[in-house]
Design a protein that fits this description.
Blueprint: E1 10-20, H1 25-34, E2 43-54, E3 59-63, H2 70-78, E4 85-90, E5 94-97, H3 110-120, H4 125-139, H5 154-167, E6 172-176, H6 184-199, E7 203-207, H7 211-217, E8 220-225, E9 228-234, H8 235-254, E10 262-264, E11 272-281, E12 284-285, E13 288-292, E14 298-306, E15 314-321, E16 326-331, E17 345-352, E18 360-369, E19 376-389
Parallel strand pairs: 3-7, 3-8, 5-6, 6-7, 13-19
Antiparallel strand pairs: 1-2, 1-4, 8-9, 10-19, 11-12, 11-14, 14-17, 15-16, 15-18, 18-19
Length: about 425
């Protein structure tokens, strides 16, 4: 912790972590006995030359392909790993949700682990007891709180870990993709809790492959590639470059093929689910539809079911390129009323006349989101593929909603 920094601030300077790879046992023994560190060339650096700083209340998203060094960086910031070079400075209480079960003793009960985790963050027994009921209620694990956590499922571990970490008023909250393991109902509550923590002025560091969440919660993004900083800056700028990179990566690996449908099936206890989808182009329904650029009308009917105790969900229609890059979306937040019947069922229709896309193949996806559009209950993407033809020579993805006019020629002042 640095005394010259305000609570919630983070400063990372020339940070690097090196792992030695010594294939010969005698060499490993020699280095161990003499305490001589191996040469930097004998091994690999999962992260190196990392520099950034965060002020209290800022939210940083970390993105990158698998193996880019994201989890290693978060563990260095949290103090779970010791840097080989550089340093990490934090001011205030740091709570982290990293690997499943990290920080928990598997032999201890949930109750005992709550006390253990909170004590490690510097809380007194009375402070822990004052927050205990809130933690247990939020986790939904009251019936299991006195069982050893080694008997918990991965989802239960996430619920307990997040409930503890978020309830202890952290100045800095670090989250590494773990919420993707939780069930839909808990994930919905968790994202609301993250938003509330951010509004209270805490600093958030969020690592996720779900770029929607990065875009929703984060002010800045750090893009890691092969252990180095590829880009660091405002969310809109970095995510745009990262999406371009992902598009190129898909084309390089797979070619311009139709990706397999990506569907998130809700768990049996999901608070909401998609019950039906019908996509039509000029009145014709199907999964592969042909139409005309700037002429055809796209219609998407979506049926859904939700618990009657919850606010009605939102539905979003997403148009993507053949590689999966999101080109445009439209959700139902513009509707003042989204009625559901007594069984929690509803149905909405999205209509896009004169579809403003140029010639090409496009994907249509459907997403069901919570009432604040923070958590995605379920998605089907693609649910249909559009193949559009055009008679004009317009380029790019979109048709510009503009027109040309004839302007009378003004006298040429330079004419002789």
């Amino acid at each position: 912790m640095s005394s010259d920094m305000p609570r919630g601030a983070v400063r990372v300077t020339n940070l690097g972590k090196h792992y030695a790879i010594l294939p010969r046992p005698l060499r490993r023994l020699w280095h161990t006995l003499l305490g001589v560190p191996p040469d930097a060339s004998e091994g690999f650096w999962p992260v190196r030359h990392i520099n950034f700083s965060l002020q209290p209340g800022q939210a940083l998203g970390i993105v990158g392909l698998n193996g880019a060094g994201k989890s290693t960086l978060l563990q260095l910031i949290n103090g779970a790993l010791t840097p080989t070079e550089g340093r990490v400075e934090t001011a205030g209480r740091v709570a982290a949700l990293l690997e499943l079960g990290a920080g928990f003793n598997p032999e201890f009960t949930g109750r005992e682990n709550i006390h253990l985790y909170a004590a490690a963050l510097g809380f007194t027994r009375s402070q822990i007891l004052a927050r205990f009921e809130q933690i247990v209620t939020f986790s939904g694990l009251r019936d299991y709180i006195d069982r050893p956590v080694k008997t918990y499922s991965s989802g239960m571990l996430v619920r307990l870990a997040f409930s503890v970490a978020s309830a202890l008023e952290p100045d800095i909250l670090i989250i590494d993709e773990a919420l993707s393991v939780g069930d839909g109902d808990f994930s919905r509550k968790s994202f609301d809790r993250i938003a509330a923590i951010k509004e209270q002025g805490a600093t958030i560091i969020l690592c996720s492959h779900v770029l929607y969440h990065i875009d929703l919660f984060c002010d800045h993004v750090l893009w890691l590639h092969e252990g180095r900083v590829k880009a660091l800056g405002p969310t809109a700028h970095v995510l745009s470059a990262y999406r371009d990179f992902l598009d190129q990566d898909v084309v390089t690996r797979d070619g311009l093929t139709h990706p397999d449908p990506r569907t998130a099936a809700p768990p049996k206890s999901a608070p909401a689910e998609i019950t039906s989808v019908e996509v039509r182009l000029d009145g014709v329904s199907g999964e592969r539809l042909a139409g005309r650029s700037g002429v055809s009308t796209l219609t998407v009917d979506v049926g859904y079911r939700t618990r009657t105790t919850l606010p009605p969900p939102h539905v979003a229609v997403v148009l993507s390129s053949v590689t999966g890059r999101i080109l445009a979306s439209h959700d139902s937040q513009s509707l003042a009323v989204r009625p559901i019947d007594g069984r929690g069922r509803g149905r909405l229709r999205f209509v896009l006349p004169s579809i403003p896309l140029t010639r090409g193949i496009y994907r249509v996806g459907v997403y069901l989101l919570c009432e604040r559009a923070r958590h995605v209950y379920q998605w089907i993407d693609p649910v249909a593929t559009l193949e559009l033809e055009q008679t004009t020579t317009h380029q790019g993805y979109f048709l510009l909603n503009g027109h040309w006019e004839v302007v009378s020629s003004a006298p040429d002042a330079m004419a002789k």
